Amino acid sequence: MIAAIETREVTKRFGALTAVSEVSIRVEQGDVFGFLGPNGSGKTTLIKMLTGLLPVTSGEAFVDGLNVMSDPEQVRRRIGYMSQQFSLYTDLTVLENLRFYGRVYGLRNQLLSERIGAVMAINHLEPYRDVISGRLSGGWKQRLALGCALLHEPRILFLDEPTAGIDPVARRELWDLLFDLSSRGITFFVTTHYMDEAERCNRLAYIYNSRLIAFGSPGEIKQLPEVNPAGARRVEITCSDLMRALHSTAKIEGVRSATAFGQNLHALVDDTLSDGALIAAIEAAGLPGATVRTISPTLEDAFVAITNQHRAALESIRG
Amino acid sequence: MANIFGGFKAVMYKEALHLRRDSVALVIGLIVPLAQLAVLGFGIDTNVRHVATVVLDEDHRQESRDFLNRLSNSDTFYLKQYVSSDRELHEAVVSGRARVAIEIPPDFSDRLRKGRTAQILVLVDGSDSSVAGQAINVAFGLGLDESLRRVLTPGQAMPIDVRAQLLFNPDSRSPNFFLPGLTAVLLLSVTTFLTAFSIVREKERGTLEQLFVTPVRPLGLLLGKIVPYLVIGYFELCLILTLMRWVFFVPIHGSLITLLVLSIPYLFVALAFGTFISTTVRSQSEAMQKAFLIFIPSIFFSGYIFPRENMPAIFYWFSFLVPATFYVDITRGVILRGAGVRELWADGLVLTVMGVGLLLLAARRFQRKSINS
């Protein structure tokens, strides 16, 4: 089967700056593909190359089997794009926005009304059809944007941080909607900062400093050797004073790294350090009542570990 | 199946929706040029009249009084004050109370009676060149006229009789001369400015980027933006012409149809320029500054205020790059001289070529932002 998206060592340079460096990924049809990385790491640049907004400097990129550089016209007809900022016409109503995007894709009359009807049904937009879109709340704006991107029945949808700045309930509902659509065969390429969202994706790519440093399903990423180094295990420490505990724990002999994680600490410790010895060491630092349990790494643990390793490697190269 | 005008109809329809929703701004946009037209139509009069004049008459006899009467009857001079000393005369000019000072020496009548050359001193404040020029001309003319009357025997005809006849604007009315040219400048504000803003607004809001992921092509987008504003520009033109004809009584000597047809290429250039500006800027305030780059030359180099023939060579040649130059020629041609398509087709052609060129340039600049197709 043709990959929905395939890149081969895609690179984007702006003058001396390399924004995306030799990234190769493969997204299967019907995947919900999560694309992660810190701000400024090159996520949006890669999306812009795949959607034809920016030319590729070197390497090759295919969307639905079509080369984005040589066949942009056909690519545009098969994709939908929802950018980071709300980019619809805030002075037009929901229906007017939908009509405009439908017409842009050449939909007319009967077909146009049918598609608008279908999209409004999926996104539950009917009650808002005559509302000026600028007056919608964040979640409903995103539903409208998604609706506009779906009108022409694209095979692949690119969503750049679709849930940034919307409330948790709207966020969850939007993701439920994505899975509903994905079950109908649409491929999603989604960037996000939220780990719970990443956890729901079939496949993930993690980009750091313009380079792809992890690629695979959430499970595969958590099993990577960088995340689970030999002779060490991951523990969750629960105690009272989180910030003090973080500083003290990091200094304990046999603790390789420690990170605050919600109300707890996650630490990577040597296998030789037992739970009892760890609790004793924390109590010795003046923090009684700590509990310790061995855990398997979360996705966030995995990304923190991979990023740290990558950063260390970069620093050793730079001296 | 690459349609280079892709999205034209959709964009045009959407643009009309924006305009309808923001109709208050549109009405204000239409009224402002009309207000400017009214201010200039009522306010500008370049004809020099009633120049404040101070007089030192040391002769005080029939001859000097006759001459002063003629001056005051000329309509150019307004004899404001009579003084009794040289010092007062100078003071009146220096202080700005009078623009012209006239001194008639004590022997004026005596010299005239003896057939010798009598002298009159006319001091002119040169700080306003058009007032000074007119004052000097009229003063000379009166002197020459008076001299001839004395030299010629009564009943003898003038050897040469020059009769000037002002064609096209017989009354030398300023509105007749200024308002047709002003049309070119006023139309810019509802064309160049509004299109540039409407495209840059989409840049600022990110909707332009969204459009480039769709099958909308640059030419379709730009033409879709241009057409609604062409209609508005045309409507504004009709308002301006109505005001000009029935409020300021500027007679239209040529055919209105010719004027309306030849206005289309000018509106098109002005709009294409707006689209071009929008490709070079990121914000509406930047667009405003760049739009003045066409606004200012349209005022100063188009011949609307200063005759192009008097310009230094470099400005004269530069004026051929300013679209308003050709349109000022068209409006004055049709309205004042009664010229038709036969005389003005070249202006229309130049404007059309400029417009198409600018539009293609703008489209190409947009194209480069996305991948070429």
Characterize the structure shown.
The complex is a heterodimer of chains A (319) and B (373). Chain A has 2 domains: 5-222, Rossmann fold, CATH 3.40.50; 232-296, Alpha-Beta Plaits, CATH 3.30.70. Chain A contains 11 helices and 15 strands. Chain A has helices at 43-50, 72-78, 94-104, 109-123, 138-150, 168-182, 195-200, 218-222, 242-251, 275-284, 299-318, and strands at 5-14, 17-23, 26-27, 32-36, 58-63, 66-67, 79-82, 156-160, 187-191, 203-208, 211-216, 232-238, 255-261, 264-270, 291-295. In chain A, the strands form 3 sheets. In chain A, strands 7-8-9-4-10-11 form a 6-stranded mixed sheet, with helices on both faces. In chain A, strands 1, 2, 3, 5 and 6 form a 5-stranded antiparallel sheet that branches. The two termini of chain A are 46 Å apart. With 373 residues, chain B is of the alpha/beta class. Chain B has 2 domains: 8-44 and 172-369, no CATH class; 51-151, abc type-2 transporter like fold. In chain B, strands 2-1-3-4 form a 4-stranded mixed sheet, sandwiched between helices. In chain B, strand 1 (51-57), helix 3 and strand 2 form a beta-alpha-beta unit. Chains A and B meet through helix 2, strand 7 and helix 3 of A and helix 1 and helix 9 of B.
Task: Give a short summary of the structure.
The complex is a heterodimer of chains A (319) and B (373). By secondary structure, chain A is of the alpha/beta class. Chain A has helices at residues 43-50, 72-78, 94-104, 109-123, 138-150, 168-182, 195-200, 218-222, 242-251, 275-284, 299-318, and strands at residues 5-14, 17-23, 26-27, 32-36, 58-63, 66-67, 79-82, 156-160, 187-191, 203-208, 211-216, 232-238, 255-261, 264-270, 291-295.
